[in-house]
Design a protein that fits this description.
Layout: E1 24-30, H1 35-45, E2 51-58, H2 64-71, E3 76-78, H3 87-100, E4 105-108, H4 117-122, E5 127-131, H5 143-150, E6 154-161, E7 171-178, H6 185-208
Parallel strand pairs: 1-2, 1-4, 2-3, 4-5
Antiparallel strand pairs: 5-6, 6-7
The protein binds 5-O-phosphono-beta-D-ribofuranosylamine (GRF).
Amino acid sequence: MSVDRDFSVISPAVQWPIAQVEQVHLGVMASGNGSNLEAIVSAIACKQLKAKIEVLIYNQPEARVAQRAERWGIPTVLLDHRAFPSREMLDAAIIQTLLQSDVEWVIMAGWMRRVTEVLIDAFPQRILNIHPSLLPSFSGIRAVEQALQAGVKISGCTVHLVELAVDSGPIIMQAAVPVLPEDTAVTLQARIQQQEHQIYPQAIALAAQQIYS
Ligand code: GRF
């Protein structure tokens, strides 16, 4: 007997279109695959999000995100953390790159380094992060595995303003997904990422207008 399952998402409170007056100038920081960068670029290309990505900063030379950005004609800057003696010095180089690129909002999309007060103070209330859990649950690394181990029946993703403590700061937007009995970290992460790609561009539009609903 087949069991009907409801894969529907607990929808975000806000849906497109979000009326934006000004175009926002974004700098994206990423370390890996770059599917969230791709989702943001796609929302811009579809004219859902009124923004321009001025620069991608990445720290892993082999990161796929760099190839994705180059395909879209986005300037890329490699700042390999191993070349900097401290987190603060890496952050200072990041700030210099962002300012040279006229960035207003900093978008962390899978940036796998802890940021310091140096960066946070340079862009107060203007740094966003996306995390694959319903914060404040399961902050830190391996959030999807943490959720599976805890046996929660609902998980999801969160976009928030960045504060100093890891994965903390005012929440801009969340989406929830069911956790299914047969889920592995791979299947649950894929379901969560589908929602990340929906909410991150929307959250950027909201945050840029100071709408923290
Ligand atoms: C996302 O799952 C995000 O929540 C986490 O890092 C991952 C980045 O994925 N912070 P991608 O590189 O955008 O595909």
